[in-house]
Write a structure and sequence with these properties.
Membrane topology: Multi-pass membrane protein
Strand content: under 5%
Number of domains: 1
Pfam families: ABC2_membrane_2
Largest sheet: none
Number of helices: 12
Keywords: Cell membrane, Membrane, Transmembrane, Transmembrane helix
GO molecular function: ABC-type transporter activity
InterPro entries: ABC-2_transporter_component (IPR051449), Motility-assoc_ABC_perm_GldF (IPR019860)
Length: 256
C-alpha cells in the first residue's frame, strides 16, 4: 500500500510539473495573472466608485467582494486548455495507454491549476500592507476577518478550478470550455442566491437555496469564522466536480 501511494504521488507530481511548465511556457499564463492583479489594482485604488482610499476607514472588504467576480474570468482562462488541449492533440489517448490512473491525471492537473491561482493571490498581500500603512490614528485592520476572507477566497478558487477542469474535459474547444466554465461558476456562485429571492421560494425554501450556493458559504468564511459546515461544503462541491471530471475523461476515451 505504501509503495502504491508513493507511485501515485510521483506520477501525479510529474503531471503537475508538466501542467505548470505548459502554463508558464506561453505568454497566456503571465497575461492572465497580470490582468487579474491589474484589474484588482484599478478597481481598488484608481476607480473612485470602488477605491479603498475613498472609504473613510481602512479595510479590504472591496478586494474580497471584487475578487470572486474577477475569478469568474481568471480561473476559466487558467483551466480551459488543461484537458481540452490534451484531447485535441491526442495526448490523452496516449496517457490512457500508460500505467497512469484517471485520478492521477485529475489530481495532477487540479493541483497545478490551484497553485497558479495561489500565485495570483499572493501579490494581493501588498494591499494589506498598503492599507495598514495608511490606517490613521494607530488603528489596525481586522486581521482575523482578513485571514478568514483569504481562506474563503482560496476555497472559492479551488472550487472554481474543479468546475473549470470539468468544463475543459467536456470538449476539445478551449473557448467552449472557457464559456461553459464561466456559466457554471456563475450559477454555483450567484445563481442559487438569485433564485432564493424569487417570491415563490420565500418562507423557508429560500434559506436552503442560499445554502446550496457558493456565495452563502464564501460570505460566511469571509466574516472570519471558520465553520466546519462551510469547509465541508467547499470540499464536497470540489470533490464532486473532480469526480465528474474523471467520469468525463473515461467516457470520452471509451467513446473514442
Amino acid at each position: 500500500m505504501l509503495i502504491r501511494n508513493y507511485i501515485f504521488v510521483i506520477v501525479m507530481l510529474a503531471i503537475f510539473k508538466k501542467e505548470i511548465h505548459q502554463f508558464f511556457s506561453s505568454i497566456t499564463g503571465y497575461v492572465a495573472i497580470i490582468l487579474f492583479l491589474l484589474a484588482n489594482g484599478l478597481f481598488l485604488f484608481v476607480f473612485p466608485d470602488t477605491s479603498l482610499l475613498d472609504m473613510g476607514y481602512a479595510n479590504l472588504d472591496g478586494l474580497f467582494e471584487l475578487a470572486p467576480m474577477i475569478f469568474l474570468l481568471l480561473i476559466p482562462a487558467i483551466t480551459m486548455r488543461s484537458l481540452s488541449d490534451e484531447f485535441k492533440s491526442g495526448t490523452m489517448e496516449l496517457l490512457s495507454t500508460k500505467p497512469i490512473t484517471w485520478w492521477q491525471i485529475v489530481w495532477g492537473k487540479f493541483s497545478a491549476c490551484v497553485l497558479i491561482v495561489l500565485i495570483a493571490l499572493v501579490p494581493t498581500i501588498v494591499y494589506y500592507v498598503a492599507m495598514s500603512a495608511l490606517a490613521a490614528g494607530g488603528s489596525s485592520l481586522d486581521s482575523g476577518s482578513i485571514i478568514g476572507s483569504y481562506i474563503g477566497l482560496f476555497l472559492l478558487g479551488s472550487t472554481f478550478t474543479a468546475i473549470g477542469l470539468w468544463a475543459s474535459s467536456l470538449t476539445t474547444n478551449a473557448v467552449v470550455a472557457f464559456l461553459v466554465a464561466i456559466f457554471t461558476c456563475y450559477i454555483f456562485y450567484n445563481g442559487f442566491d438569485a433564485l432564493s429571492k424569487v417570491p415563490v421560494f420565500s418562507g423557508g425554501a429560500d434559506y436552503y437555496l442560499q445554502m446550496a450556493g457558493i456565495r452563502y458559504h464564501y460570505n460566511s468564511v469571509s466574516r472570519g469564522v471558520i465553520d466546519s459546515r462551510d469547509i465541508i461544503y467547499f470540499f464536497s462541491v470540489t470533490g464532486l466536480m473532480l469526480y465528474l471530471t474523471k467520469m468525463s475523461l473515461q467516457r470520452k476515451i471509451w467513446q473514442g
